[in-house]
Amino acid sequence: MRCPVCERAELVEKVQNYPYRECGLDNVILAGITVRACPECGSLVPQIPKMEALHDCIAHALVKKEERLTPAEIVFLRKSLGWSGTDFAENLQCDKSQVSKWENGRVPMSKQNELLFREIIVGGKKITDYRRTDAARKEGNKVVSLFVKIDEAKRRWTDEWRDAA
Ligand SMILES: [Zn+2]
Q: Domains in the chain: how many in total?
């Protein structure tokens, strides 16, 4: 396959960790996936199996966080429900402008709204190991990376938080 960006070289396949910024979060690493790399311009084309399961796996990790959700994580979780900003506002019975303030970080979500939002995701995604007494109890955000790994048979993704180096 020729590089879709520079069209000057054939892509070379390798297995590596891939920062999955396309999901809107800058700390999600796909561990050991196949990536097609361009030797000329350095473009990377990741080969991501089971995309829907991957997004569910990331949502699972976020919803169980002990720290508060960041604005980018709120956006990710809203989209994981297939919600627009309007849907979000209707479900939490708030104003749509409120939703955009949470999502651009101008106003933090109240803890009660955040817990309600998490419960909605837990219910929608049938997450069984959520502990509401642990969720959102810590203020502030440690800098950590979320490593998401697929098993050998490429059947399921698993999530693991790691302190950033
Ligand atoms: Zn290229």
A: 1
Number of helical (H) and strand (E) elements in the chain, helices listed first: 5, 5
pTM for the predicted model, two decimal places = 0.91
What does R_g of the chain's alpha carbons equal in angstroms? 18
Is 9 domain-assigned?
Answer: no
Q: What is the pLDDT of residues 27-74, one digit of tens each?
A: 999 999 999 999 999 999 999 999 999 999 999 999 999 999 999 999
Which domain does 93 fall in, by range?
52-146
How far is ligand 1, taken at its centre, from the CA of residue 11, in Å? 8
Strand partners, 33: 16
Cα 90 to the center of its chain, rounded Å = 23
**Predicted pLDDT at 154:** 79
Whether 116 is in a domain gets the answer yes
Cα(75) to centroid(ligand 1), Å: 31
